[in-house]
Design goal:
Chain lengths: 395, 219
């Protein structure tokens, strides 16, 4: 169904073709889980602590993609929260880090690095894929902080699972609040809501030729759009050498919220296209376009991201104190870089539907944007040596 | 070098995606209308070029270098390598560096490739808002940077000493390098100096650049 033209370029099939190349396989996911389960069990054994461990971030929301940085594919990095049940914030952050370091050492893991907030453990390559696991020590968040977070969070029932993570450097020794379980629960709510939307959409079509799709079709569709955007981001920002790139939580939150506000998209390409159009509104807001005008034109992004007194606001759904767009307010260039990326996304989406571009070139453009190899692709007609080319400035 | 319509047409045979629409013989130059519709790659990133370019190729080429600019509708906007002239001609590089890269025989196809290169760099810049190559500064500073790159030396005085030693002949190989490194020239800057000395045009260019660079106001 959907997206596949009877003839010509099958843009959604292409999207699925590239998704297969940036995705983690089931085996890889299982291996990562096995690796972090083993190390966490060892930490429990050697530390004697009561630890509840779970993955966070893209591994928890199943939106992980093959990492790409500085022009190269990188190792998968899985974040694992180790929430200590029998300690609380009365211990100092640095002490908690020290306890974990000792436990990791005693467990016989020597290939690790201690950072401000976590320990990165590196694993040898298997099946050409390297893994690193970030062990993040934590304790439950204090009652006072939970109360403050509740006041700022829309869905207060999500706040309870908040944790405190150590942030330790020579010049500071502090706790940071985080809520990965709350975020995961929120994301699952979003995918469930999207499944409902999909059901309603199906009811609206009395066409028996439409095949029955697997139960989590809508969830996967949403995840796929997040994955493709994340990979497009990694490649684009690796090429721009911009200071910072939009974080995964920003992309995930925006797509999940938008998908549920927009009419049901039949396939990845359609949803991607809608998301990009909504994101284009943000730059217009920064240039003074009114929210009302945007709403009148049928866009809904202003209900998700606010621009108040030149301050961009998108609250972490599981922690209202955490404005996940705060970097845009601290440095306007960060927002500008985001808008430039959105312009590039628009050009890519348009190239895929253009009637003036040959099909083979459409594939080439898509693959280039994701920095993927394509066996049937022809090599470029020209290769420019960037060490020799040196244009002369006219001003 | 004898240029003719035919030799210009033949020069693009090896360049895929480049076609010549028209060659007109003007008083002092050939006016060439060229379509560039090809893919190009820089730093592993592809660009898809689609441009119409007008090239003014002087009959005196390579003594004088050609100029080129977008023909018809302009697709290149607000780019700091477009000259502020009426037609918006491309600033491909310093004269010295262009000539150096057109060696050994100033093949006109090589010049066409420099245009493709220029458009590829622009395409990257337009998409990613950053230059994928090192640029030369505006004006005389850029001329100096060109020599600094060629001689692999940051030092302005070294550049001046090297240029002042021109022309360099075969028999000078075993002399001390004029840059002051205390190495024999053949183990230092002989290759670059000899290459410039061998070409009358390059040598002339170096001499006129030396006059500009000697002027302290340009340092």
């Amino acid at each position: 169904m959907g997206g596949t033209n009877i003839m010509g370029y099958k843009k959604n099939e292409k999207i699925n073709e590239v998704l297969a190349k940036i995705d983690l396989t089931k085996t890889q996911r299982e291996r990562a889980k096995e690796l972090y389960t083993n190390i966490c069990k060892s930490i429990i054994r050697t530390s004697g602590l009561d630890i509840n461990f779970y993955s966070q971030g893209s591994f928890a929301t199943k939106t992980a993609v093959r990492p790409f940085k500085d022009g190269k594919d990188r190792s998968y990095d899985v974040d694992v929260i180790c929430e200590v049940q029998n300690l609380d914030k009365s211990i100092t952050p640095s002490k908690l880090m020290d306890i974990f370091e000792e436990a990791i050492d005693s467990a016989g893991y020597h290939n690790y690095t201690r950072w401000e907030k976590c320990f990165t453990v590196e694993y040898a390559k298997i099946d050409d894929i390297e893994f690193t696991i970030d062990i993040i020590p934590s304790v439950a968040e204090s009652f006072e902080t939970l109360e403050k977070i509740r006041q700022e969070t829309e869905r207060i029932e999500l706040v309870e699972t908040s944790i405190a993570i150590p942030d330790v450097a020579p010049s500071y020794n502090k706790w940071i609040s985080n809520n990965p379980l709350g975020y995961k629960a929120w994301f699952e709510n979003q995918t469930q809501a999207y499944e409902k939307k999909y059901e309603e959409f199906r009811k609206g079509i009395f066409d028996s030729t439409i095949e029955e799709l697997p139960e989590d079709a809508a969830t996967n569709l949403m995840r796929n759009v997040i994955k493709i955007l994340k990979r497009l981001r990694d490649v684009y920002f690796s090429r721009t050498k911009a200071q910072s790139k939009p974080s995964s939580i920003v992309i995930t939150t925006i797509v999940a919220k938008l998908a549920n506000k927009l009419s049901y998209a039949q396939d990845e390409f359609t949803l991607l296209n809608l998301v990009v159009s909504e994101l284009q509104q943000l730059e217009s807001f920064s240039r003074g376009k009114s929210i009302q005008k945007s709403l009148n034109e049928g866009f809904v992004i202003s209900e998700i991201i606010a621009l108040d007194n030149d301050q961009w606001i998108l609250k972490n759904p599981a922690n209202g104190l955490d404005n996940i767009l705060s970097s845009w307010n601290e440095e306007t260039q960060v927002a500008k870089d985001f808008f430039n990326w959105v312009t590039d996304l628009r050009n890519l989406v348009e190239s895929q539907t253009s009637s003036n571009i040959e099909d083979i070139q459409k594939s080439e453009m898509l693959y280039d944007s994701l920095n993927l190899d394509f066996s049937s692709i022809k090599e470029a007609d020209f290769e420019v040596n960037s060490a020799k080319a040196s244009p002369w400035r006219v001003k | 070098m004898i240029l003719s319509k035919n030799s210009i047409l033949q020069s693009i045979n090896s360049l895929s995606g480049i076609t010549i629409k028209e060659i007109i013989e003007e008083k002092n130059f050939y006016k060439i209308v060229m379509c560039i519709s090809c893919s190009s790659q820089i730093n592993g990133v592809k660009a898809f070029l689609d441009y119409k370019i007008l090239i003014k190729l002087p009959y005196s080429y390579p003594k004088s270098l050609p100029t080129c600019y977008e023909y018809g509708e302009k697709k290149i906007h607000s780019y700091h390598h477009i000259n502020p002239d009426k037609v918006g001609s491309f600033c491909l590089g310093t004269e010295m560096e262009l000539r150096y890269r057109l060696l050994p025989n100033y093949a006109i196809s090589k010049y066409f490739e420099l245009i493709v290169e220029y458009l590829t760099v622009y395409s990257y810049y337009q998409k990613y808002h950053t230059m994928p190559v090192v640029e030369r500064s505006h004006g005389n500073k850029g001329i100096l940077e060109g020599y600094q790159y060629l001689f692999k030396s940051e030092n302005r005085m070294f550049v001046l000493k090297l240029l002042s030693a021109l022309p360099v002949k075969n028999k000078d190989k075993n002399l001390l390098c004029p840059c002051g490194s205390s190495k024999k020239m053949k183990k230092c800057h002989y290759y670059e100096l000899h290459k410039i000395s061998k070409s009358r045009l390059l040598y002339n260019q170096a001499m006129s650049d030396l006059e500009i660079l000697k002027d302290r106001r340009n340092s």
